[in-house]
Amino acid sequence: MSDFHRLSRRTVLLGGAAVFGGAVLGPSLAGCSPLGAEGARPLKFWHLLSGGDGIVMAGLVDAANEANPEFHAAQTVLAWGTPYYTKLAMASVGGRAPDVAIMHASRLPGYAPGGLLDPWDLDLLEEFGVTEADFPERIWEKGIIDGDLFSIALDAHPFIMMYNTDVAEQAGVLGDDGQLVEITSPEQFLEVARAMQQVTGRRGLSYGYLGDGAQMWRLFYTFYKQQDAEMSLEPGEPAQMDEDAAVTALDFIKQLLDGEIAATNGDYATAVAEFVNGESGMFFTGVWELPTAVNAGIPFDAQPIPNLFGTPAAYADSHAFVLPHQSEPDEAQRREVYRFVASILKGSFDWAGAGHIPAYSPIIESDGYADLVPQAHYASAADVLNYDPPAWFTGSGSDFQTYFAENVQGVFRGGDSREGIQGFVRRLNVLLAKPNPVA
Fold first, then answer.
1. Which of 42, 181, 225, 229 has its CA 20 to 30 A from that of 387?
2. Tens of pLDDT along 49-105?
3. Considering the entire predicted model, what is its pTM?
4. Sign (positive/negative) of CA torsion 222, 225, 227, 231?
5. Using only C-alpha atoms, what is the Rg of the chain?
6. Where are the transmembrane segments (predicted)?
7. How many CA atoms lie within 13 A of 233 on its CB side?
């Protein structure tokens, strides 16, 4: 695939997001595709993908509809976060569920045990050419609850590190292969960041966290898991957390927030602006910011966040297909849902254009994907990803990360790491003493 084609598609993604703005946040895309051919089964498809992601998904749905006259999928796009998950739960309980929906894999423990989702039939999936062997082990296993498969991942979207290649070269930290030198310890990371700060004259690293529990949690959990630390949240039991590993992770993040390596009190928007304006050498962010960096025109590459504590690990989540519960599903209708999902997965190469790592391994293993840079340089994060510890109250768009922020933002601003993590554990214990409200 040529650089021209690749960059043009990314530019279209970002430009389209600017044109549509918030318009895709409501159900305005429902039925936006042409009507299906006569005899095609209409499929109701709900998702929460807006902006550039929503535009790419619309293209994937259109392609699937065109290639499969047996069905016609119509999208309904709902607001991200609590409104989406609340409406999805209510639709499943009230008998008005769509045929298929997308949810974050990390939210599965709060939905599948409560009967809000139906399991996938592995034999029928295989009939349409989709099997366990087609997915990275960690991604496939995340969809399994009590032995049944309840979600099929479209992607992995991990927390990664972007870096300015010009700044890295001037700082003397670019290897012979044109990529950042391997960083294997906290001390080495600090050295590289300071060298980049000397080049930019402003920051070595962009990382925004202020008022953003998700940003705080993503980086903390990455460094926590790099210490091979576990976290167990069993209902009715006290939270199990490696307090020393948590303190180590928080103390290191505080070292980064010294006003030179990274801003002491930076928010996410400021961090994005710093990096795309060439004012920092590195950027801790999600893969979803790839189109932003491309559109800025800066020289950059990306990789998984360096393994600083001994165990390769990255925080991540996945957009995953689920079957909202239906008391009497139409077998012929369900069959077309399987055909639809298989078609999206097999055609998900363009999903990488938005930065996400396609979960369907044949896409990653294709020759064309190897030519995608920087996507191919951080694809290995899918093999070391870590989802939120499973519990009914964790996952993207939940209050879990807000509770983390309530206890840890003060730590990031100079407070005591141990006191902060102990406060978070106390908050978790209150939640673990309560039953799943939808179970």
1. 181
2. 998 899 999 999 999 999 999 999 999 999 988 889 999 999 988 888 999 999 999
3. 0.90
4. positive
5. 22
6. none
7. 24
